[in-house]
Amino acid sequence: MAGVEMSTKTPGVGVFLELRKGLQSGLLIVGKDVANSPADVVLTGGDSSLHIRTPGGELSLKLPAGVTLEQGSCIPTPAGGFCGEELHYRLRINVARISAEDAHDSVMETLWAKKSYCFYCQGCMTRLLEDRVFKRVLPLPNGNWNAIVDDWCCHPDPFANKKLLPRAEDCLLGDTFLLLPRDDSCDQTLTQEVSPVGAEDSQDPKKPCRRLALISCRNCSSMLGEAVAPGTLKLYITQVVVEPAVGDRKPEASLNRSVFVERTVAARLLELSNSLSTFHFSVQTPDGKAFLLLWLLNSDSIIASIPVMCVGGERSVSSQALPIPSPKAARALKLLYVACSDTGTMQRDIVTSWEVSAIGHPVVLPLKVCEELLRVIDDSNSTLPASMRCMNSYEAAYLRL
Question: Which range, 100-104, 160-164, 290-294, 343-347, is most confident?
């Protein structure tokens, strides 16, 4: 039933392409609004490009460098229950080299010791911190380290009620945040507001009601992070842009917010998956409440999704002479997801199963960012062909790198 709901809420996709670099294969899906039969579609390859000819015109699709079509390999394949809506084709590709072209490095890979950096507000690109040089750039233990500390020690937890904080000229890297020492210059660019947080804390008689010191940009009021101690800033990687300090050079204009969130989270999920050998992530709010469950399927996808109006399906006769734009296929993570607020029975069972089994590496983000990420993922899901939007009670999506 979920698949039916998803297929009716958005118009059909004109052309969808997914290439797998590791498998050197691909799937091409063409909507029936674009072509009626397999013979209506002709696929040819060029230098790092694909040319898709349909009755509505020819579409040229740019591929990453080194990726080319194996000529003559495109063959029709059954579309299953969606044969009345889509045409499916399998194809082979050649990959000259495996590289990280077009990848978006996260802040964690950008920062190095003994180099000068500037920190900017992602919302308005105001310079928040200038010419920061760190003697040490150190990773913090991963997100659930305190849950297994008893397995390390043969005596009471020596870390109880203690925070891991940076010393002067340190930068500590968490899974989704940076811990920095605060200096006097911060008063000119940052504001601090103390707010109550954590309903669970207020209900627990053994704990005092904690209050969170929220850090915001003085210029645009965007929330950037928290003051976890009087002299320590916690800045989330989805809220700041970090660049090497080079004279008076200013960074380029801020990316579209949804694009920045998508790329930043995708890059970080890929890093965590590679370093921790995990594919399950629980996106949580700072109070520890699960918001979104993500299951990373693969990280070698190259995708392109072209709306039906761009490939001739809904164009009028007078527009036939207009050139079809040349979109670019992009690297992406393929994932399955479940929103923890979903009220469906099967989805609730999945959430419960993840909680009971304690699977899902915690990825902590502010509530507003969690909501932004869910919108990005839902938007991705809505651009997929109907046959690809659901899988075993999960919904499917891609995060572009």
Answer: 290-294
